[in-house]
Amino acid sequence: MDFAAALIAENAALADLLRDADLSIPVPTCPEWTLEQLMRHVGRGDRWCAEIVAEQSMDFIDPRTVAGGKPPVGRDSEIAWLQAGPRQLLDAVAQTGAETPVWTFLGPRPATWWVRRRLQEAVVHRADAAIALGTRFDVDPAIAADAISEWLERVVIQADEEGPAGGDRPLGDGQSVHLHATDAGLGEAGEWTILGRSDGIAVDHEHGKATAALRGPARGLLLAVVRRGTAAEEGLEVFGDTGVWDTWLARTPF
Questions:
Q1: Which helix (H) or strand (E) covers residue 20, if one does?
Q2: φ, ψ for residue 180 (rounded to 5)?
């Protein structure tokens, strides 16, 4: 997948949603945010990552200190500001070098890691904007599937850092969740088996039986995984122990 092109396209789609919208509308899936705050969050976030990459920083940078972190006055200027963010990040990656290690909240990663992260951030927040505006959210199945994979990769790393299984772990030892995207052409990229182990969580792309399973389009699975819609609202088939799925959701906030 061309993450850079997809980031530009997803950002543009978000900009199109916000162009003529009332930005004072609250975003129900991001409590206490309005559409204006969501727009600022995305635009500043892209610039924050661009600054991390451009400076080849190995330390956290306070997003509040990022140059150009607030949009200019006027809707056209705000939209242009929002759309300029991904280009700043892509330019920074090109100048710094895609494989140059930089700071991330998961530890040092290649600079290009931020491109995929910002793509999937834009996807989920575009869903937030669509929900706030009462319009349907559509996304390419391959992008939705990668968003699920990217999210699960981060959950695995964070769970491993928490130590032995138990307590507030999203899956107990031996428990499992299987997600099956029904979109044509995804193949293994559209299947995930998440397994709770004594030392953390493992994820693979194999088909198999699990303690709980969800089946449906990648779009619906993504919205359910990141808690932007329930399995029922997204028309997903749910099998097995629904309590395991409910616990997973409760312990894996986006």
A1: none
A2: -130, 110
